[in-house]
Write a structure and sequence with these properties.
Elements: H1 3-13, E1 25-30, H2 34-43, E2 48-53, H3 56-63, E3 70-74, H4 82-91, E4 100-104, H5 109-118, E5 122-125, H6 130-161, H7 172-189, E6 193-200, H8 203-228, E7 235-240, E8 243-249, H9 253-269, E9 272-274, E10 279-281, E11 285-291, H10 299-315, E12 321-322
Parallel strand pairs: 1-2, 1-3, 3-4, 4-5, 11-12
Antiparallel strand pairs: 6-8, 6-11, 7-8, 9-10
The structure holds 3'-deoxy-guanosine-5'-triphosphate and magnesium ion (3 copies).
GO molecular function: diguanylate cyclase activity
EC number: 2.7.7.65
Protein name: diguanylate cyclase
Length: 323
């Protein structure tokens, strides 16, 4: 299946009807009147966990922790406008999609209209009808669950789109997007930046001798070694086939050559073990380095120089680093 299929499939599978409501919903109730709190708690006793805050400020800070599935808030407090909280919650990333249900008193039409304009999702009017409150709450919980599922699915689809499925490294799409950003930043800040273009030597022979699966295992093991040898701030990616790319911010040509040589030696000095058969495979790599020059004009030039350096490493005998 393609990345697109999988993303779409998980969106379609997500329950949108009434059957998928979690019984463990976490509801936040902000209300200061004891008899109202007690009534709402009784109505919700089967729906999940209800956290109660009687002070609106404290309730606000509780809400922005992002741990709740719905906020139920009373329309009146002795000296506080609850709509201020609602407006703030709508402006914060963590709570932008938190469902809010307002519990209003009879005759508060103006306040209800203001609340809905601010993005409060729904309201109920006292005296509370238990079935109505439950129905409105469940609608909001369902909407929240759907929204959360959709967001998780979008994140997952994105991650798949920028990850190489064989090695788990970033892929070419990710590299090309982020290299442009890192390059621009380096030039603007006059910071060094180097890239390593890495290609496994005679990889066709490895495939020929150990099969395509054996070749795949070599690629995976190479990716693991690569990861071990770069910093968290470096961007390691599989560019395609048996070509890998490492982008190293804040790294000048001298340091890049040291890192490249360390990787080359680590690959050449310890044979790769192909798990299934226990066969050992000697592997060597060639690396071309390019570093951003003062007044570097484009990513394309940088890539071109790395490619030329790699070509130089290949033609001068392989298993070497060329700058
Ligand atoms: P050189 O030293 O000049 O780089 O020689 P080479 O054999 O590595 O050169 P070439 O780039 O021509 O061959 C790369 C081979 O990698 C060809 C292709 O069949 C193989 N290959 C590409 N992608 C994969 C993959 O995902 N898995 C495996 N096992 N092989 C792959
Ligand atoms: Mg080649
Ligand atoms: Mg090769
Ligand atoms: Mg190649």
């Amino acid at each position: 299946a393609t990345t697109r299929d999988v993303g779409l499939e998980s969106i379609l599978r997500f329950p949108v009807d009434g059957t998928g409501i979690a019984k463990n919903a976490r509801i936040l109730l902000i209300d200061e009147r004891p008899e109202s709190i007690e009534r709402i708690q009784r109505i919700l006793s089967d729906e999940g966990m209800v956290d109660v805050q009687i002070d609106p400020q404290t309730g606000f800070f509780d809400a922005i922790q992002g741990n709740h599935d719905c906020l139920i808030i009373s329309s009146n407090f002795s000296d506080f406008d609850p709509l201020r909280i609602c407006a703030q919650l709508r402006s914060l990333d963590n709570t932008r999609s938190l469902p809010i249900i307002l519990v209003a008193d009879h005759g508060e039409e103006t306040l209800i209209r203001r609340a809905l304009e601010l993005g409060v999702n729904d309201y109920v009017v006292r005296p509370l009808n238990p079935n109505e409150l439950l129905a409105r709450l469940r609608t909001q919980l369902r909407r929240k669950a759907y929204h959360d599922g959709l967001r998780a699915s979008v994140v997952k689809t994105y991650e798949m789109a920028v990850t190489d499925s064989l090695t788990g490294l970033h892929n070419r799409l990710y590299l090309e997007t982020h290299l442009a950003t890192l390059f621009k930043r380096a030039v603007e800040r006059r910071r060094p930046l180097s890239i390593l273009m890495t290609d496994i030597d005679r990889f066709k022979l490895i495939n020929d001798n150990h099969g395509h699966d054996g070749g795949d295992e070599v690629l995976r093991e190479f990716a693991r070694r690569l990861r071990r040898n770069v910093r968290g701030s470096d961007l390691a990616s599989r560019y395609g086939g048996e070509e890998f790319f490492i982008v190293m911010p804040d790294t000048d040509a001298t340091l890049a050559a040291i890192v490249a040589e360390r990787i080359r030696r680590e690959v050449a000095s310890t044979q790769f073990i192909i798990n299934q058969s226990g066969t050992t495979v000697p592997v060597t790599i060639s690396i071309g380095i390019a570093s951003v020059l003062p007044k570097e004009d484009s990513v394309q030039n940088l890539l071109k120089r790395a490619d030329e350096a790699l070509y130089g490493a290949k033609t001068s005998g392989r298993n070497r680093v060329v700058s």
